[in-house]
Amino acid sequence: MSEIKVRFAPSPTGYMHIGNTRTALFNWLLAKKLGGKFMLRIDDTDKLRSKEEYELSLRDSLKWLGLVWEEEARQSARFDRYNEVVEQLKKEGRIYACYETAEELEFMRKRLMNKGLPPIYERSALKLTAEQIAAYEKEGRKPHYRFKLVDGEIKWNDMVRGEVKYEAKNLSDPIIIREDGSFLYHLPSVIDDHDFGITHIIRGEDHVTNTASQVQMFEALGGIVPTFGHLPLLTGKEGKLSKRLGSLGVRELKAEGIEAMAISSFLAKLGTSESIEPFYDLESLAKSLDLSKIGRSQPKFDVEELETFNTKFIHGAPYEYVKGRIDADENFWNAVKGNLTFVKDITAWEDICHKEVKPIIEDSALTEAAADLLPAEPWNEETFNLWVNEVKAKTGKKGKDLFHPIRKALTAQENGPELKILMPLMGRNKAYKRLKGEAA
Ligand code: GLU
How far, in Å, from the CA of 189 to the mean position of ligand 1? Predict the structure, then answer.
């Protein structure tokens, strides 16, 4: 069996968004699960719309998500190879020149539709005589080129959709080269997949019809046909995935404080029969990958659900997950994480321990008595309970009436992590002054 290899093939005509992140993720996870390789292919044949800025950003986003690649290629560097294949396929009669203008093609489509027929290209170009071609060329018409499909059934076993079947005669021969000589996506993609030994391709279901003609292109190249999986496209809350959501950038989510692994955990299970649960590393997410669990209907993507999930993700995150990104130790992380919306918010709690806080005094008799009962340092997590019991005995306060004024004096917050963890970190000096009503 040949080596497993998958690829992610973005066109650098925009930033990484939720839609292409999902495609990249599924391919990466499949490679990981099958012990194969992940390749990045930059589909930059569209010179006008491709921008370096987008490509750099796509690379950054992939790295941030942890979707690292082991190999890469760029389509704009491979035109010689594409032209070589085109010449070969022309000789074999699989690529042919067409001279219809866009208006003529539109007219032909309309004529067929008016007759109640499907608008399939009738291969009129193949019926042109040498004289007609010479006349067109003299007129200054430039040919575009189509790939000739062979009659018969095209079928594949889709990793997501199961068996998919097409009759070639129900498809138009795809245009592969435009009048100006530029390539459309179809053929270069197949040449690359063939040359780089791509074995599995996961992409959006908007490519299913392309796949039908591409299966024949793989066969024309004499190579293996990769295994395909077509994911149902995401939709927004109100049906179609809106422009805003569809292009919701990974950069924006990152800036907001959404965790890369929260995005991956969320996208990997959205629209599957499994529940969306946090995975704290891509390897375990890859182990859980099961493409047969992907439903056929289009899953709804709601950014607010992702945000809510992100909070749940952070509340459950083990220290290992954030180690190296935060100053706090494991104890502090475990005490504080349940109060965080974003990991970056941890600094607010660190500041409460280490920087100046203006206390809020609700019951000065209680908090002043509490200050006077503070034991000498060193403090540990036991200190708080021993001390609070003494305060309780002395003041007769209990429950909320006891804890709430102490919390507000020490932290100036309504809620927060356990005081037994925060107190030793702020130290006796700050605790004493705050309980006495002084900023410290
Ligand atoms: N560049 C193509 C796209 O972004 C790649 C499609 C494919 O995966 O074959 O749609």
Answer: 8
Strands 175-177 and 144-147: antiparallel
- The closest of 291, 260, 259, 288 to 276, measured between CA atoms, is 288
In the predicted model, residues of the chain with pLDDT beneath 50 are: none
Q: Is 185 in the pocket of ligand 1 (CB under 6 A)?
A: yes
User: Would you give the distance in Å from CA 58 to the centre of its chain?
Assistant: 11
- pLDDT for the residue numbered 272: 96
pLDDT at site 248: 75
| 138: exposed, middle or buried (Cβ count in 10 Å: 0-12, 13-18, 19+) | exposed
Please give the model's pTM, rounded to 2 decimal places. 0.92
Question: Token pair of 66, please?
Answer: 């942890």
Question: How many C-beta atoms lie closer than 10 Å to residue 309's C-beta?
Answer: 21
Test site for ligand 1: of 38, 41, 207, 231, most ligand atoms within 8 A of the Cβ: 207
| Contact (CB, 8 A) for 217 and 88 | no
- Distance between CA atoms of 265 and 360, rounded to whole angstroms? 41
Distances (CA, A) of 72 to 77, 117, 278: 12, 44, 30
**How far apart are the C-alpha atoms of 145 and 135, rounded to whole Å?**
18
Check if 44 has its Cβ closer than 6 Å to any atom of ligand 1: no
